[in-house]
Amino acid sequence: MSSTDSEIQGSPRRVLLVLSCLWIVLYVVKVIYRLYLHPLAKFPGPKLAAGTFLYEGYYDVVKRGKYVHRIEEMHSQYGPIIRINPQELHVYDPTFFDSVYSSSGKWAKPPYIVRSMDPGFSAFGTLDHDHHRLRRGALNRFFSKQKVNALQHVVQDLANKLCEKLESYCNTGTPIDFEGAFGDFTLDAIAEYTIDSKLGLVDREGFTSDLRKTFRGLGEFGHLVKALPWLMTAKLLPGIESFIRVNVVKVLLDWDDTCLSIANHLLRTNPDETKEHPTVLREIIADPDLGPSEKTPKRLMFEAKTILNAGTGTVSWTLTTALWYLTTNTDILARLRAEILTVMPDPRQPVQFQELEQLPYFTAVLKESLRLGFGATMRSARAAPDRVLQYKDWTIPQNTPVSLSISHMHHNPDVFPDPLRFDPERWLGDMEERHRLERFFVPFSRGTRNCLGSNLAWAELYIMISQCVLRMDLEPFQTTLEHIEMYSDMIVSEPKRWKEGPRFLVKNVVAY
């Protein structure tokens, strides 16, 4: 072989070596800039966290959703405001929550928060404040309390179907995965509400335990993409699916196909033929404030998919949390049953949820369930694009992502004494104390980007729990606090023994 041939064969290796060295040099320069020249360089925190997203990635990917706990440890060491990654500040001070999650002023969302789930087509994934306001305005009207009240028969019918199905398991000795059962209920409800599609999960035999893996998998994939953003463009490559250990990519693609097909169908449908059957997608299509670019099949698909994802795992986990605490605190359960019976003497003749939400003890039980179940646990940073923020002596530069964690708020012993205890009584104090607790109770976040479906979530909680506790006697089956208490942040709360799931036996069907 000639020397020329050897040189040609060696060229690709040299190019690869040169490019690798160049990448390393550029990365080192970037880290040095982040540590010493970046506008956030003055803020306290570990140098590794300030220099690279891989520090956060280690705790959330390798150690599986543990960065939320590491952040709390960092606050103990460095103080109430710290830098937790190259771009973001985190504050551990409940009194500052309303300054960040505010309804006044402009608030943008940093791209690394949402890039694993949405490339910017849905309201959730919209980064710019004004664009988000346009998209969110079309959705707010449909998720208003008035709309939810008018369509609550959908939730009532599904809750009744699920309870009838659960009652069929009475005295069979078969443990039921209630997170899966409630996941079927919430997904059926939000699908009919959003895309006018009757999925029929509640009508099927058995329960969809795979939903738990799917939603935990979404969190797993989200953490991975935040640490390695290039994976977002490569997520469909062979091997990525097995790397994240769940079948989440296939599920995401199935959702895409389903929602895209429905969007195309609705766009071809004469709106005059569907006026009597309002759904979220139809509202968007009919909204005169939205231009053609806001009504493309792809955008409608992402909007629908995001709402379906957000409205399923969070509510089903809160319902499961409530059920466990009620079945392990029989005095609380007895008091709750007695109160609900005052307005609903026959659980098979359900009342409007507006009557249920007037019950003070029932409301206190649900607030404790939301406080300890959290809803969504993922950090959702906000950035003020046109002004600096001030936290005590610290001036936060314009357009800097800032976050507070819901789990830190709800577990703060200065706000909620004995925070891990399920105690509905804490919500029944005098008016001043109730207002104090409400200020720091944020399961649906706050501000211009708060949870879109909070009114629907409340309706589902009141309706489903009222029917469950009146119609059945339930008993936990090989289920402990390790199946309930938050151990990891996987978008929703993940307990230590999440794979098994909280299971219950139906011991008795109550006759009235």
Automatic annotation (TrEMBL):
Pfam families: p450. Belongs to the cytochrome P450 family. The chain crosses the membrane at residues 15-33, 307-326. This is Cytochrome P450. GO terms for molecular function: heme binding; iron ion binding; monooxygenase activity; oxidoreductase activity, acting on paired donors, with incorporation or reduction of molecular oxygen. The keyword Membrane applies. The lineage of its organism: Eukaryota, Fungi, Dikarya, Ascomycota, Pezizomycotina. Keywords: Heme, Iron, Membrane, Metal-binding, Monooxygenase, Oxidoreductase, Transmembrane, Transmembrane helix. Gene3D superfamilies: Cytochrome P450. It comes from Xylaria hypoxylon. Its cofactor is heme. Heme binds at C451. The keyword Iron applies.
